[in-house]
Known about the structure:
Blueprint: E1 4-10, E2 15-17, H1 24-27, H2 39-43, E3 46-52, H3 53-63, E4 74-78, E5 90-93, H4 101-108, E6 112-117, H5 119-127, E7 133-138, E8 147-148, E9 154-164, E10 167-177
Parallel strand pairs: 1-6, 1-7, 3-4, 3-6, 4-5
Antiparallel strand pairs: 2-8, 7-10, 9-10
The structure holds NADP nicotinamide-adenine-dinucleotide phosphate (NAP).
NADP nicotinamide-adenine-dinucleotide phosphate is lined by residues 8-9, 16-17, 21, 23, 26, 51-55, 58, 78-81, 94-95, 116-121, 124, 147.
Amino acid sequence: MTSYIYYTATTLDGFLADPNDSLDWLMTQPIDNDGPFAIADLMATVGVTVMGSTTYEWLLRHLGDDPWPYPEQRTFVFTHRDLAVVHPSIELIAGTPAEHRARIEEAADDLGVWVVGGGHLAAQFASAGMLDEMVVSYAPVVLGAGRPLFTGQFDFELLETAQNRAFLIGRYRVVGPRG
Length: 179
Ligand SMILES: NC(=O)c1ccc[n+]([C@@H]2O[C@H](COP(=O)([O-])OP(=O)(O)OC[C@H]3O[C@@H](n4cnc5c(N)ncnc54)[C@H](OP(=O)(O)O)[C@@H]3O)[C@@H](O)[C@H]2O)c1
């Protein structure tokens, strides 16, 4: 069984990014890259990343001269547009997660899938029964508006908590849609 994890950082009021897709509030926070729930630990467990086009375009804008950060993983970008593909591991797809389940899981092989975001894509995966866990790092910031952590109505079960410098981290099991 392929495991799907939505691993992300959020403000205290549940935003992944500000209304202009800025992550300045996040990048200025202290974090221990060898501490609890470090990104390197996640990357060792995933064979596939999936993301929406806003997240992909944010990454492209901020790469500068750096290479694509996930060359070891297969990346599926959900979009209806013909975006630039900057690495052979990247594929543009459209439609529901369920429609692509077989190829996502084939690409993951024995590893997991990192649902990078945004929040509506994560909810689409949860609705399709393709989300097992959510790991949320809460930064000590309130923005008042922005891109949502999650859309729709779902229940989660808290499994674990930790602190990494500025961040309060919660690991949750996805229980399912409410009601
Ligand atoms: N705080 C963090 O750790 C973190 C993590 C992830 C992302 N972020 C940021 O949060 C923001 C998220 O942006 P967002 O809310 O707009 O979400 P997003 O998921 O990155 O992008 C949404 C777009 O993806 C495309 N899309 C979504 N589902 C699709 C489907 N089923 N089929 C085809 N296309 C689909 C649509 O665009 P088109 O069809 O028009 O291309 C949609 O407008 C970004 O600024 C990102 O950088 C932050």
